[in-house]
Amino acid sequence: MSYADLLRGPHVMRLLLGTLVGRLPSAMAAVAVPLALRQAGASYGFVGLAVGAFAVASAVGGPLLGRIVDRVGQPRVLLPTALVAAVGFAVVAVAPGSTAAVLGGVVLAGAATPPLEPCLRALWPDIVAPGKLESAYALDSASQELVFVGGPLVVAGGVAVASPAAALWAGALLGVAGVLVVVTAPPARAWKAPARPADWLGPLRSRGLVVLITGLTGVGIAIGTLNVLVVSYAEGHRMPGGAPALLALNALGALTGGLAYGAVRRWRVAPPRRTLLMMLGLTAGYGLLCLLPAPPYMACLMLLTGLFLAPVLTVVFVLVGELAPAGTVTEAFAWLVTLMTAGVALGSAVTGTVLEGAGATWAAACGVLGVAVGTLVILAGQAQLVPAAAREEAGEAPARAAA
């Protein structure tokens, strides 16, 4: 099955594009908020505080909003949160010189970030055939690289035409527009999670899911390391495009890897073992980054580290859908996003400190250490990554054979 066939399926293109557009504000905020604050005369310390507050609010709000979606449906959560987040961005755009307004605005925008990623992943089983589900997840994980490329480009266009505040207004409008495309689609309106037991742990009562999202936190640490490392590398090496060019190559590698993974019609290796193999490939790529080679070779390493990222995410999406207890799938995907975001923040913070104190080689080691620990977690929890029903069936098979 080709990706063209998949995209021609009912509602697929609409939901994918709506989700990508609706997620642009989050990618734009990392650039637009600092630019707006600096233009208003804010210190770098306050800029870091504001961006950090946005990230923390997003991480905290994600699982909570995912749980509400599982209870009341997608439109009732997505549209109100898009409007609230737009108000948050508007507050920052109107009063970038006010400390209270900026902090209130970024916390509002972050906490109310519409959970479009988890919602789309919850919808895939309803809009594509079972045999096409993994290809849909691969397309999903690969296409999200367009968000991280497109967001900064929209900000650059807004700043060139008007101002950083205009870019924030554009982000607010794009978020609402993308959500409107999604919530007016029949699958989103019709989607309803199965009844779930009254358990405050929700999806976290699944041991396999806890293993999975803990392991993916290590991937987040590696991504956070890379985001800081390339800035330092570009300052010490003359190369076209600098750090943005290196990150763009990494995104290109992820896009290529995701599409190549999804093009495989049938995998002979089970998802838990496949996750481990992809994590090992990612570990190897980040390990080579410690060499910090000359720019041409560094460009190849950027492609290599990205190449395994989207396949890791794709097979993890499959496992999340299988491991999440009934009625908790949206919240489960939200926890995955939250833990990876926390890993990115941790990796960025630690790498910045190590860069100043020990140098670039040790800073690069933070990334490989993060993904290696994540790989060990996945290795140790292989048995937990098999859905309970499959484990029971495997246990009953020898008994049936003996009988």
Automatic annotation (TrEMBL):
<feature type="transmembrane region" description="Helical">
    <location>
        <begin position="245"/>
        <end position="264"/>
    </location>
</feature>
<feature type="transmembrane region" description="Helical">
    <location>
        <begin position="276"/>
        <end position="295"/>
    </location>
</feature>
<feature type="transmembrane region" description="Helical">
    <location>
        <begin position="43"/>
        <end position="65"/>
    </location>
</feature>
<keyword id="KW-0472">Membrane</keyword>
<feature type="transmembrane region" description="Helical">
    <location>
        <begin position="361"/>
        <end position="381"/>
    </location>
</feature>
<feature type="transmembrane region" description="Helical">
    <location>
        <begin position="332"/>
        <end position="355"/>
    </location>
</feature>
<dbReference type="GO" id="GO:0005886">
    <property type="term" value="C:plasma membrane"/>
</dbReference>
<feature type="transmembrane region" description="Helical">
    <location>
        <begin position="12"/>
        <end position="37"/>
    </location>
</feature>
<dbReference type="Pfam" id="PF07690">
    <property type="entry name" value="MFS_1"/>
</dbReference>
<feature type="transmembrane region" description="Helical">
    <location>
        <begin position="301"/>
        <end position="320"/>
    </location>
</feature>
<feature type="transmembrane region" description="Helical">
    <location>
        <begin position="209"/>
        <end position="233"/>
    </location>
</feature>
<keyword id="KW-0812">Transmembrane</keyword>
<dbReference type="InterPro" id="IPR036259">
    <property type="entry name" value="MFS_trans_sf"/>
</dbReference>
<keyword id="KW-1133">Transmembrane helix</keyword>
<feature type="domain" description="Major facilitator superfamily (MFS) profile">
    <location>
        <begin position="11"/>
        <end position="384"/>
    </location>
</feature>
<protein>
    <submittedName>
        <fullName>MFS transporter</fullName>
    </submittedName>
</protein>
<dbReference type="InterPro" id="IPR011701">
    <property type="entry name" value="MFS"/>
</dbReference>
<feature type="transmembrane region" description="Helical">
    <location>
        <begin position="166"/>
        <end position="188"/>
    </location>
</feature>
<feature type="transmembrane region" description="Helical">
    <location>
        <begin position="77"/>
        <end position="95"/>
    </location>
</feature>
<dbReference type="InterPro" id="IPR020846">
    <property type="entry name" value="MFS_dom"/>
</dbReference>
<dbReference type="GO" id="GO:0022857">
    <property type="term" value="F:transmembrane transporter activity"/>
</dbReference>
